[in-house]
Specification:
By secondary structure, the protein is of the alpha+beta class. Helices cover 43% and strands 17% of the residues. The N and C termini lie far apart (83 Å).
Length: 689
């Protein structure tokens, strides 16, 4: 069959994963599987589409891992690039290229962007304060410093970004910083860096997003995230760092600096596309996907990457376009997903909580995982991967609905029609209704996929399989075969056409199983636009059938649950973490001035979900304290409580409000904070020892 290609070109990207660890299920659910399903669908409707991704191989996470393992950064990226590339292949990701940011093509591309900005006079060189570890004798990259977030009070925030609230800030704003190299308190030391004027593009970015949303209906979570950034006002951002590992700044005046990873990593999409066409007869073909105004660019990401793909990268492309004739397209849409959690808790590499893809696929088939993740996609809110649900999706839906329908149809075709497609007889209403359902389903499913509604699309796919089962049951071929074989032939013919349609519409989600179904049907996949309408030739020879979705036994699932919920194992992990906590002396502890305080007023901090502004009385004096307990206590329920405060803590600003102390609280296993209260008969101001 000759397909007519659509004229428009589409470039699809998925966020570049860091090459410092293995891909886990949370990654797949957020940025990769939804993109792969969208791409596979578009190939079936004959779009001219290219899908690029690759490893993000610079930045501090790589060097941290290398330091921990006493290896070079190159050793680390080589290991995890190959591991993740293999995992993606096993999972069925259909990248046109899985590239790397360590390749010369990428370095050259990133340097060209920097040079263009520098030549245009866009960048400004500024002196700034950056944390310097005297003991280690080096400036500390952002992730080598940890302290208290100036916005939400999270005490394990990085020096430039808070993992809890997602806010980005200047390193100098971090409260109580600690070096992750020496454990000491780093000092702010002057250094010089090049800055990109992000604020200069705010008005244009707001206009761009508004128009893109009007035309292409952006997801609300993405719009609200951008709105929050615009409300705070965009600021200049450094594009260089004092590091050895990375893309060198192409200026003789900055020989010891590299491009900041946030700046160069997003350019990996462009360099990967260049690499894709590099050794072909048309090496400049990449330009047709990035520099044709009619090209559609779709960026699939998780919610933690929204700002980089809706604000920072578009601003970078705008800046390039202002000074160059070869202009880049901006994202048409950024359908970011929320997070997938694992058994009720967030995936965490550092805590060893989660399942990497290679490990999972050693036990279970990829299509069962693809279907489960797609059916449970975190499109509008965080969702959860549960072992029992995974088992149910495989057994109760893939096996009992889709697999059972295919199996029973092939049994009838083999037993009564010599494994050949029988001729239809006169159609009855039940047959016409089923054929109508087949004709309508692909279009309905396709529209949902075009709107990035994978979850709803998968539901419609399985509903079609349910309709096939119902048609088979209501037609009762086991009865008609005894009295009216022509009627049975019609039923089997339409059921085989239904299987053909199911194989096509399910192909983007469960490609390995769909391929097996096509082999069983002895036919190749066709054009999605004709799906549901094509008919088999009478007498078409079928191949042998096979069980597509073996049941997952309870014992197998129970083993996996036990592996992750064994209390003894959990206690060992906790003990190991506790042993790593540095010891302090008695004199160190005595420096902390703990006192009883009475809360006399409380109010919520505007624009913060977690902070309360408190006024406390310590003896005869009053002071202001900002506490991150708003999600555990309402202001009116905290007044009059007597609590323990750190009275000699250096004042700090949180959300622009000065905090003159810290209230002690206990975090339970659910993350709820419980304020440490004291006997109401004790007077405020008493010292706690």
């Amino acid at each position: 069959m000759v397909f007519k290609l659509k004229k428009e070109k589409i470039i699809v990207t998925s966020a570049l994963p860091y090459a410092n660890g293995n891909i886990h299920l949370g990654h797949l659910s957020g940025a990769y599987l939804p993109a792969d399903i969208f791409v596979r669908y578009n190939r079936l409707i004959n779009s001219d589409i290219v899908y690029v991704c690759g490893s993000d191989e610079h930045g501090v996470p790589i060097t941290i891992t290398a330091d921990k393992e006493n290896l070079t950064p190159q050793d680390i990226i080589n290991r995890y690039h190959e591991n993740n590339k293999a995992a993606f292949e096993k999972f069925g990701m259909s990248f046109d290229i899985y590239s790397r940011t360590s390749i010369p093509t990428h370095h050259k591309t990133a340097q060209e962007f920097f040079s263009s900005y520098h030549k245009q006079g866009i960048l400004s060189e500024k002196k700034s304060l950056q944390f310097y570890d005297e003991e280690a004798g080096m400036f500390l990259p952002d992730r080598y410093v940890e302290g208290t977030c100036p916005k939400c009070g999270f005490e394990e925030a990085r020096s430039d970004e808070c993992e809890r609230c997602g806010d980005l800030y200047d390193s100098s704003e971090l409260v109580n910083p600690k070096s992750k190299i020496s454990g000491g308190s780093p000092q702010l030391k002057e250094t010089s860096h090049w800055y990109f004027p992000l604020g200069k593009y705010q008005e244009r970015l707001e206009d761009y997003i508004d128009k893109a949303n009007t035309k292409f209906s952006w997801k609300n979570n993405v719009l609200q995230y951008c709105k929050g950034w615009f409300q705070d006002g965009l600021k200049d951002r450094a594009v260089t760092r004092d590091l050895d590992w990375g893309v060198k700044v192409p200026l003789n005046s900055s020989p010891d600096k590299v491009l900041y990873v946030w700046f160069e990593a997003v350019l990996g999409y462009i360099s990967a596309t260049k690499e894709l066409f590099k050794n072909t007869e048309k090496p400049d073909e990449w330009k047709k996907y990035w520099q044709d105004e009619n090209t559609r660019y779709i960026a699939f990401i998780g919610k933690d990457n929204i700002v980089f793909h809706t604000i920072i990268f578009p601003a970078m492309l705008m800046a390039w376009n202002d000074g160059n004739d070869d202009k880049f397209v901006l994202p048409e849409n950024v359908p970011a997903n929320e997070f997938l959690n694992f058994e009720g808790k967030k995936f965490s590499k550092s805590r060893g909580w989660g399942i990497d893809v290679n490990e999972f696929l050693e036990i279970f088939p990829p299509d069962s995982l693809r279907y489960t993740l797609a059916a449970n996609a975190p499109e509008n809110k965080d969702t959860d991967f549960q072992w029992k649900e995974f088992q149910a999706k495989n057994n109760s839906e893939l096996a009992d609905i889709l697999g059972n329908f295919i199996n029973r149809t092939f049994i009838f075709a083999k037993k009564h029609f010599d494994e050949k497609v029988p001729e239809r007889g006169e159609l009855e209403k039940i047959d016409e209704d089923m054929l109508s359902t087949l004709a309508e389903a692909p279009s309905k499913i396709g529209k949902l996929l075009e709107q990035y509604k994978v979850k709803d699309a998968v539901s419609e796919m399985m509903n079609l399989a349910r309709a096939g089962n119902k048609y088979f049951n209501d037609s009762e071929p086991w009865v008609s075969v005894k009295t009216n074989k022509e009627r049975t032939a019609t039923t089997v013919n339409i059921c085989l056409q239904t299987i053909f349609t199911l194989a096509e519409v399910f192909a983007p989600v469960i490609p390995f199983s769909s391929e097996k179904i096509f082999k069983m049907l002895n036919i190749e996949i066709g054009d999605w636009n004709e799906s549901g309408k094509r008919e088999f030739k009478v007498g078409h020879q079928l191949n042998k059938s096979e069980i597509l979705f073996p049941k997952i036994e309870d014992k197998t699932i129970e083993t996996e649950i036990l592996k992750w919920s064994n209390p003894a194992t959990f206690e060992e992990e906790v003990e190991e973490e506790e042993e790593q906590v540095p010891e302090i002396t008695f004199d160190d502890f005595m420096k902390v001035d703990l006192k009883v305080a009475k809360i006399i007023s409380a109010e919520k901090v505007p624009k913060s979900k977690k902070l309360l502004k408190l006024k406390v009385k310590i003896g005869k004096s009053e002071r202001q304290v900002v506490a991150g307990v708003a999600q555990s206590y309402e202001p009116e329920n905290i007044v009059e409580k007597k609590v323990v405060v750190v009275a000699n803590l250096k004042p700090a600003k949180l959300f622009g409000i000065e905090s003159q102390g810290m209230i002690l609280a206990i975090e339970d296993e659910t993350g709820k904070l419980n304020i440490v209260e004291v006997d109401d008969n004790l007077n405020s101001g008493l010292k706690v020892r």
